[in-house]
Write a structure and sequence with these properties.
By secondary structure, this protein is of the alpha/beta class. It has helices spanning about 5-10, 25-35, 75-85, 110-115, 160-170, 180-190, 210-215, 220-235, 235-245, 255-270, 345-355, 385-395; strands spanning about 15-20, 40-50, 65, 95, 100-105, 125-130, 145-150, 155-160, 195-205, 275-280, 290-295, 315, 330-335, 355-365, 400-410, 415-420, 425-430, 435-440. The longest helix is centred in the N-terminal third of the chain and has 15 residues, at about 75-85.
Amino acid sequence: MKTQQSANTAKATVDFICPTWNNETILNRFVMSLVRFTAEPFRLVIVNNGDKPIYFTHQDPRVIVLTAGKNLGWMGGINAGLEWVRANDPAKYICFINDDVQVLEHDYGWLPKMLKAFEKPGVGAVGPTSNAIMGYQSFHHVGLPPYLETAALSGMCMLVKREVIEKIGGLDENLPGGDDLDYSIRIRDAGYRLGICRRTFLFHHYGQTGKRVHGEYWDSQAHSEAINAALIKKHGFKAWYTTANNMLPGGGGYDFVASEEKLALEELAPHLDGKVLDLGCGGKKIDPRVIGVDIRPNGDYGVGYNAIIPSGGEVACDVVELKPFADKSVDAILAKHLTEHLIRPIPALREWGRVLKDGGRLVIIVPDWRYCESISCDPSHTAAYTPDSLKDIIEASGCFKVTRTESVEPGYVFMVSCERLPRISTHYYYHVTTQTAGTCSCHPALGHPAMAVAA
């Protein structure tokens, strides 16, 4: 049955379910941060397990309070919230969340970033990073990709597709704890993947309820052993062990650097006996046979990551002004993690087209905006691309035809490979503003009119 509250919030993208027990101060911090810094339609269902009414410092129609009348515990509270949500216009995504979580100020994109992860095939649930959390969700891990597949997600904040919940049901209230590990196993057994969005960070105050309710037994060795025994009895030793130790079948995950270099070399291989430029090569060229081009002279140090790695380039010049190289003198060009740094990509593409031979190869690798917040992850990035948007810009330069687009595992980077269109006999054009005659060597197949800009 629909209520007025459900009607007011029926268009929510996410339903949050948050059990709480006599924790008003910390709960208010959570609610205020969620309301102020969430740039996505949502509804928050608070299940009050306590014996006191909740008074909010800020009233919001998106916040619904269900009074349990007794302490249902975490799992019982989540299931009570699920029952209400499913009867009142449930959102496409449902998030189990602790009352001691806090959204960081001005991180309005924290939830959209997590939702983006569901665009990857087979993802059934996603979690953020935090200061007090298990596995690769901990912010103490460094050098990990923006999205990472995992064997287990913490219940601190678990964003789940509603279709998954409809398929496997709610939490198992018979367990002594470990509901997040149990639910992770059940989601994976149902054929879905679990993902970590490492571009989202939520602060976790941690341990605000368990010890107040259960005393020192909570999180003790005896408690942990009881949880492990229950999970082993339910799922078997192998499923418990691989989940508790975050071991996915096949193990090892993806080495995205090796993956992108493998794809690039597949495209460059026919040209490696000729002249190949590795633009913006930094401290390491992709192959000893290529010519490294970098704005830093060989051996010089830069900033950031390059502060500890000297330049490995043989030619020092600006990659958008390849003055050391003559027209039609280069067989192939690699621009790996370079194009997203360029303020004016089309003039750069035309300059690269100038030095490439007809039929020459251009390989570009950039972050994929669909799965990676490419601008916020690096302040030197000036642009964000999807395969379609980059293809449009490349072909707008008038110099190239895109022949291959490939995602780099685990999917937050992609490669585009292009062929330099052959120059044709010079034809005349007229400058739009001055009406003076000039020439253009663009390819007519791209449909350039008489007033085209020279390639």
